[in-house]
Design goal:
single chain; alpha/beta; about 45% helix; binds adenosine-5'-diphosphate
């Protein structure tokens, strides 16, 4: 730690070991050495000066050595600092690069000057350059207003915390991120750069919106099912009377008016069914369904309304595939998407429906040439009761009901931008695939209509059990016109009394399920116990399919159950079926 002098190396005991070597090899005779210390005072080396004559150092030489040592120690410590800065920079870079959160530096003019791997993965870009190019072209923020909000927050406070914005990925899909950023200011104290990190909150937001949907569902569920049930009975009578009156010869004006009443009742019925399927908690029955067949049949059924609106519908179905779900529910999903697309396309517009199969899943794509969905509307389209359509034209239930159905079968519905910057919308339903090519075991997409046998006048007697007089009256008209004799009961107990007296009198019993006192379900169970021979001749109807009791009854009974308001043609079909089975013989 102290300066050392050897005025004569040859005689200095310090040099014993290496004397010969030093003296002989280099011809040195004297040496003076000064310790070199680092910035923290630690000894890091020494400066040794050698002389070829044996003498002590002069004061001037010692002073020179000490100046050199001082400068050397400064140089040495800065060199060490630089190395440690380099190594700490590398370690910091690797920390940022490998951080699980997306980290970035962005300038006011939209240039991304640095990004890490998590940021590239989040936005699905292959490298930093392509992401930087997209950002410079203004393609990072889905909405410029959100970026302006970020700049304003940084201008105000240098720090922005928890600001949510939507970013666009390389493939055009969106991701909602929560940003936290710190600003740097230029010499005029304007924010010109910020560094921030982004957290993907899309799954959180999706879960929240699912929760909100469920909460809304629970809140309105009870109300809706009550209202729907109350509406079903009057709607049934309106529909039945209108259908029945249309069977007679009418003036053109009357026929048109009756047709209008029937069509509006059908429309109201489909709204009520939408409401009910929105709140329904019952287990749907999954079966093997031909995807292409069901899509084609549903599209065919919608063709007349598309033509009326001047919309061309193109259908392209891929190789046949089998999905495992409730066919009626699948038809409902396709109908909802298609009717939205037809409405959006409008007069002269076009709609494309395609099916495609990939490994393990299949897709139904419904695309239209309409105006598309604006970014403000897009996040809300799957919300129940959200509609942008005028009152009376939209219920806002189509997409939320469809999403519920598709999710129930392990699938999903998403919107995608149409390729090539085309205007319009594209909805994609993805469903898990469950089998190979469709075979004959698959439920047919369209049921064949059986030929209708004619009843002999007065040959059969029907018992109508319903607490709603208008429904009994509409059904009485229906049966009387077909040559049946009709008896009526206003509740389950009165019906049971008639059946207990002489069940054999009735070729057919049509009973409501929900009635005060003895319900249709109770009546059924009493008959199972001691008059089971009547059961094959019974048809039940209910407007209350959403209730647990009705759903479990449908599961366990072998009797047909019609959902109110049903079409008289459905009742006709059932009677035909029972007649063909030999059950209904007057
Ligand atoms: P509704 O059709 O009764 O309004 P939906 O739940 O089916 O209810 O749709 C909700 C909203 O989503 C519509 O009001 C509309 O704003 C938007 N939407 C759905 N499909 C399309 C489409 N193909 N093109 C444009 N907007 C659409």
């Amino acid at each position: 730690g102290e300066p050392v002098q050897s005025a004569d190396i040859a005689s200095d005991p310090l040099w014993t070991a290496s004397r010969a070597c030093v003296v002989m090899s280099y011809g040195v005779r004297a040496c003076w050495a000064t310790p070199l210390r680092g910035a923290d005072g630690r000894l890091v080396g020494a400066l040794a000066c050698f002389c070829d004559t044996a003498r002590p150092a002069t004061p001037r030489e010692l002073e020179l050595a000490s100046t050199v040592v001082h400068l050397a120690s400064i140089a040495l410590s800065s060199a060490r600092d630089a190395a440690s800065i380099r190594s700490s920079e590398a370690s910091f870079r690797s920390f940022v690069e490998n951080a699980p959160a997306a980290i970035f530096r962005e300038t006011l003019h939209g240039h991304l000057v640095s990004t890490n791997a998590a940021m590239l993965a989040l936005l699905r870009y292959p490298d930093g350059e392509s992401l930087a190019r997209a950002a410079s072209a203004g393609q990072l923020y889905a909405d410029d207003a959100a970026r302006r909000r970020l700049v304003a927050a940084l201008e105000a406070d240098d720090l922005a915390r928890g600001l949510e914005v939507d970013w666009c990925r390389a493939d055009g899909t969106r991701v909602t991120v929560r940003l936290s950023a710190r600003a740097y200011r230029d010499e005029r104290t304007r924010v010109w750069l910020w560094e921030g990190y982004a957290e993907d909150v899309t799954p959180l937001r999706q879960a929240e919106s699912a929760l909100r949907r469920n909460e809304k569902l629970a809140a309105v569920g009870q109300l809706v099912s009550g209202v729907a049930h109350e509406l079903n009975n009057p709607l049934s009578s309106i529909l039945h009377f209108a259908e029945d009156l249309l069977d007679d010869r009418r003036t053109q004006g009357d026929a048109e008016a009756l047709g209008m009443i029937r069509d509006q009742a059908r429309r109201s019925r489909s709204i009520v069914r939408d409401l009910l399927s929105f709140v329904q908690q019952r287990d749907v029955v999954a079966e093997a369904v031909s995807l292409a067949g069901t899509v084609a049949a549903t599209v065919r059924a919608m063709m007349p309304s598309a033509e009326m609106l001047g919309v061309r519908v193109h259908l392209e179905t891929a190789q046949e595939s089998v999905v495992h779900l409730d066919r009626a529910a699948l038809e409902q999903v396709i109908t909802n998407l298609l009717s939205n697309a037809i409405q959006a396309a409008g007069m002269g517009g076009e709609v494309w429906v395609r099916t495609a199969c990939g490994p393990g899943c299949c897709r139904i794509v419904v695309e239209d040439s309409g105006p598309g969905i604006s970014p403000e509307v897009l996040p809300r389209i799957f919300d129940p009761f959200f509609t942008t359509k005028p009152t009376g034209e939209g219920t806002g239930l189509g997409l939320s009901v469809s999403l519920g159905i598709v999710e129930q079968f392990g699938g999903r519905i998403a919107t995608e931008p149409r390729g090539g910057n085309l205007p319009g919308s594209r909805f994609v339903v993805t469903l898990p695939l469950t089998g190979g090519p469709a075979d004959t075991a698959i439920a047919p997409a369209v049921a064949a209509t059986p030929a209708r046998p004619v009843m002999e006048p007065g040959s059969c007697r029907v018992l109508l059990i319903d607490d709603e007089p208008s429904i009994r009256s509409a059904l009485r008209r229906f049966f009387t016109r077909r040559g049946w004799q009709v008896e009526e009961a206003g509740d389950g107990a009165a019906g049971l009394a008639l059946l207990s007296r002489d069940a054999g009198r009735f070729a057919l019993v049509v009973s409501d399920l929900r009635m005060p006192g003895l319900s249709g379900v109770d009546l059924h169970d009493r008959l199972v116990a001691d008059r089971s021979q009547v059961l094959p001749r019974m048809i039940f109807s209910t407007g209350d399919v959403a209730s647990h009791e009705a759903a479990s009854f449908v599961q366990r009974t072998s009797c047909p159950v019609l959902q109110k308001p049903f079409e008289l043609a459905e009742l006709d079909d059932l009677i035909t079926l029972l007649t063909e089975r030999g059950v209904l013989q007057g």
